[in-house]
Structure prediction request, 312 residues.
Amino acid sequence: MRATNLIGFRVSRAGPLALLQDAGRFGVRHLGVTQGGPADLHAWAWANRLAGNPWGTAVLEVTFGGLELVAERDMTIALTGADLGIHHNLQTAPRWRTLAISAGDTLSFGTPVNGLRAYLAVAGGFRGDSVLGSVACVVREQLGGFDGQGNTLREGEMLTVNQPEATPANQTAPESEQRDYRHPTTLDLLPGAQIAAFNGRSLFEAFNAEWRVDQRADRMGVRLTGPRLQCAISTLVSEGISLGAVQVPPDGQPIALLNDRQTIGGYPRLGNLTPLAASRLAQCLPGQTLRFRAVGIDRALRHHRRFLQIFR
Prediction:
């Protein structure tokens, strides 16, 4: 049962999509349950780091903006990820650093300026109802979130928090970690098991052409438009799908799968984005362009381990 004496925020305007996300729901895909968790692992991890929270602490992921919260108690928070025109008491709120707020203060999220998803961490972490070992909110599966039923925030809802063990020190993320999501990006991709089934022209274009983010993009996956990739395999026996898998359906336009993806799929795969590449893709607005870069498993593992060492 949720504690009633640790109310952190009141929702005065809900916005289109604000979800509670911890590290994700693991060990349950054999049940057909997906992982959820933060679409941008990088920004989520830094929000917790700045707020003094351990890895896995629940954070609020705000997509597109439109959210307004009123603080019900004094707290230390951190805002990372996208610039959604966030204001603290009508003043521009600082991002990528800690911020002390007082009871009665207002946090409002406008519209995307730089990136798509912002992360709000509070010292001590948000408190939700755990389902299958996680509070990660997956709306489609009706799991997780503040109520355990996968609901997005509602106007008037009270958001509960945990008591922090100590007030975190004032911190700012290094400039090198403060991402600018407006520029075209190159995403690291591990070639997949079916890559040899794509013809030579398609492989050349896959890694040399420019791809554009389609309007059809959400936490389940992002469709990309560009050259038509041709594969000798049209369908497969369905197999497990991992975070960042890049499937190519018969129309030849890749779909990169994200946190709320299905657990199995039957389209051939060009490869798999690394976790941090999938995070960067999750911040791309429709119309933005990107490229793929083929990488080997050793390089991908070194890069990811260096990232994890910052937070563990």
Notes: The mean pLDDT is 95. The chain has two domains: 7-177, 185-311. The chain is about 15% helix and 30% strand. Residues 172 and 309 are 18 Å apart (CA to CA).
